[in-house]
Amino acid sequence: MDLHITEASSLAIIDRQLEDSNRKVSPAQYEIIRRVIYQTADFEYGSLLRFSEDALIKGAAALSARTSIVVDVSAIQVSIVPRLQQTFLNPVYCCTTIRGQSDKTKTIAASGLETLGHNYPDSIFIIGQDQTALATFIELNESSMIKPSLIIATSPLFGEQSAKLDLRHSSIPSIYIDSSKGNSTVATAIMNSLINLAWIAYNIKSG
Q: pTM of the predicted model, to two decimals?
């Protein structure tokens, strides 16, 4: 993948600053971490990103199978669709554009997630902004209403963080922020990096 000189220089700076990190990650995990730092200019994410053991393999397999992708906010949708159009062509559905059942206790994104979860239970789910949607995702999974191929969870959590704690002890293939920090920019960086890595692996395998 060709890099602009400015991007290459920035990534080189990130690499130098991460050299002293004692954290052991795979090359693919490292690539995702450095891309998140590049997009956010926040080195703390180097220690906060968590990957389940099978997250990258399951995520890449789902992408190559053109599995549907469900996102909580439109900012993520518009940021990942261009790369998908150049690669795997997975359909992307946004929770905030779906008219779900009226429930004053849930956000529009959470209600939309219920609808899309029922329609596309084996999707890649990306919850980057709406903490209520993440709680709804956990509920749907625990009731076996969905069978996620992967969950990317980076929504900021204020107060109770049980949803992310549930991911820590879950068997769901997951990439998440082990902190109250997070936002849709982080989720987008993770997903676009995963698409790039999966596309490289797919072409090597096909070749």
A: 0.93
128 DSSP 8-state letter: S
On whether the CB atoms of residues 71 and 133 are closer than 8 A, the answer is no
Q: Is 92 helix (H, G, I), strand (E, B) or coil?
A: strand
Q: Provide the 10 A C-beta neighbour count for residue 202.
A: 16
pLDDT at 165 over 80: no
Q: Is the dihedral of CA 103, 107, 108, 110 positive or negative?
A: negative
- What whole-number distance in Å separates Cα of residue 64 and Cα of residue 206? 11
What is the token pair recorded at 118?
């029922």
Domains in the chain: ranges and CATH: 50-206 (3.40.50.10230)
Q: Give the C-alpha separation, 163 to 147, whole Å.
A: 17
